[in-house]
């Protein structure tokens, strides 16, 4: 089957391979191939490959020698990958230990295994973790060409929203004013700034703001990202009428902050409003809340209604892209 690959001259192959490995972009299911003086490196996420590298599609042999955790366990374990960490959710300590040992012993490029030890809790939405392998809870996550340093024990981060964040980022134009009301370590703010926007990111978690500033520096956008550690309701008046785009990714309680979002909105502003609602009416409550907050000062147009993912039985995590025009 055809596989997305980076093609480079053979003499430049090792340098390119190392760059892709450092970015955690190599697809370990396929073999590297040399043909006609070029090296072909299979990549898992072609959209995240640096622009100076050529991406092509071509047939590659599947790698037969890779040992997976399932090979060692006899069953397929469930885990998420975040950088070089595997995140599992196991109540049975013996099963959790067996999975962690198998992940580390496999050929996967994973060094850390963390088991969820609590629900997301508190105003900062962090959770407790049990460290089963590795040195600590700090990871480096790469997503669509951006790099994020974060400590999972100190900040909230969901790798499952990568596609959704990229969807929003692709709508941004150079020179925009973007306001991220619950910015975390910057998974919205950093790629938006890389598109040429000026971005303000607000969060009540001081650890998240520290990482946001560091990630802005790592990604070369420190001059376009303003990080503010404060309740966004206190910050919003300072940016009245400023925003061309407002991101509200706090789906359990975003409606409580709509007054502040409307205050930030300029004459023509797109609001990305995240919500969790019952599948019978996933978008209606959010739209009604936005209209109650914005009308009649703004004309309100719902441009997109999107199901981001299933959240719980009969509950959906959704996004409404809403245009506010004064």
List the defining traits of the structure above.
326 residues; Alpha-Beta Plaits; GMP Synthetase, Chain A, domain 3; Rossmann fold; 3 domains; seven-stranded mixed sheet; four-stranded antiparallel sheet; 34% strand
Task: Give a structural overview.
The protein is of the alpha/beta class and 326 residues long. It has three domains: 2-59, Alpha-Beta Plaits (2-Layer Sandwich); 69-136, 2-Layer Sandwich (GMP Synthetase, Chain A, domain 3), CATH 3.30.300; 158-325, Rossmann fold. It is 24% helix and 34% strand. The protein has nine helices and 17 strands. The chain has helices at residues 13-22, 69-73, 93-105, 162-169, 189-194, 206-218, 232-235, 258-264, 284-294, and strands at residues 2-9, 33-35, 38-42, 54-59, 80-82, 85-88, 112-116, 129-133, 138-143, 146-151, 177-180, 198-203, 225-229, 243-248, 265-278, 299-312, 315-325. It has a seven-stranded mixed beta sheet with strand order 13-12-11-14-15-17-16. Strands 2-3-1-4 form a four-stranded antiparallel beta sheet. Strand 14, helix 8 and strand 15 form a beta-alpha-beta unit. The termini are far apart. The mean pLDDT is 93.
């Amino acid at each position: 089957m055809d596989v997305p690959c980076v093609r480079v001259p053979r003499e430049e192959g090792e340098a390119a391979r190392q760059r892709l490995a450092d970015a955690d972009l190599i697809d370990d299911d396929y073999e590297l191939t040399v043909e006609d003086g070029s090296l072909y490196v299979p990549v898992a996420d072609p959209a995240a490959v640096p622009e100076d590298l050529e991406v092509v599609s071509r047939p590659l042999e599947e790698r037969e020698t890779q040992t997976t955790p399932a090979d060692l366990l006899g069953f397929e374990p469930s885990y998420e990958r975040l950088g070089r960490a595997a995140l599992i959710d196991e109540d049975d300590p013996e099963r959790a230990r067996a999975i962690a040992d198998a992940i580390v012993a496999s050929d996967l490029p994973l060094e850390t295994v963390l088991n969820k030890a609590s629900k997301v809790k508190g105003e900062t939405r962090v959770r407790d973790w049990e460290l089963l392998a590795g040195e600590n809870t700090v990871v480096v996550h790469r997503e669509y060409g951006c790099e994020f340093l974060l400590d999972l024990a100190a900040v909230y981060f969901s790798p499952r929203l990568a596609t959704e964040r990229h969807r929003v980022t692709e709508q941004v134009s150079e020179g925009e004013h973007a306001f991220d009301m619950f910015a975390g370590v910057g998974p919205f703010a950093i790629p938006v700034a890389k598109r040429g926007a000026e971005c303000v990111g607000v969060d009540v978690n001081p650890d998240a703001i520290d990482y946001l500033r560091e990630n802005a520096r790592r990604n070369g956008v420190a001059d376009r990202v303003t990080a503010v550690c404060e309740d966004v309701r206190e910050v919003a008046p300072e940016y009245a009428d400023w925003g061309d785009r407002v991101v509200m990714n706090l789906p359990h309680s975003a409606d409580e902050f709509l007054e502040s979002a409307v205050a930030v909105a300029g004459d023509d502003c797109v609001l990305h409003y995240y919500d969790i609602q019952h599948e019978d009416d996933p978008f209606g409550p959010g739209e009604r809340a936005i209209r109650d907050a914005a009308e009649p000062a703004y004309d309100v147009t719902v441009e997109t209604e999107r199901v981001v993912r299933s959240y719980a039985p009969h509950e959906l995590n959704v996004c409404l892209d809403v245009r506010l025009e004064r």
